[in-house]
Hints:
This protein is α+β, with helices and mostly antiparallel strands. It folds into 2 domains: about 40 residues; about 150 residues, Lipopolysaccharide (LPS) transport protein A like domain (lipopolysaccharide transport protein A fold). The protein has 2 helices and 11 strands. Strands 2-3-6-7-5-4 form a 6-stranded antiparallel beta barrel. The longest helix has about 40 residues. The radius of gyration is 26 Å and the shape is elongated. The chain starts with a helix and ends with a helix.
Amino acid sequence: MVNKLSTIFALFLVLIIAFITYWLKNEVEKELLIKDTNNVSGPEFYLRKFNSVQTKKNGDVKFKISAKKMEQYDYAEYAILDKPNFTKYRNKKPYTYIKSNSGKVISGGDEYLFSDNVILTRVKTKKKREMKLFTDQLDILPNLDIILTKKPVKIIQEPSIEIYGVGMKYDNKEGVVKLLSNVRVRYDNPTKKSKIN
Length: 197
């Protein structure tokens, strides 16, 4: 009796393992077929010299986004940008410029992901000096006026401040940049340099 039960139990276990193996094999084959189909198919549409402007209710420009080329694929939930540029406006004037080698339009334009040699420039104002930020990736949320990254960043603030950190949140409304970790600051005093020379 014990031998029959152990044999039935072993047979039952073998059947379960066979069923799971068969199911996994089918799932992997489906996934490979989808990837092959996606790689073979070209873009649904593409635009050269893509340019888009979003305005406020009163007609003032809120931001502009442009790219050398934009490609939209059927299977993707985003559009791919080549050499994108993003310009944020404040008081009818450009306030922040962002450019990179590549990017994505996500959620129909609610989010832009810039990558590969990203440079953010905040223009000089009466209260603030020009600031440049360098990183490998920026997540731009234009409707919230927030820019984020988890990557290392380098900030150059005129006249002679360099700031390094990992991770950043830039609240464009407030004009406040918050570095999230590993922050280091290098400050060169130009008056000391001139006295030495």
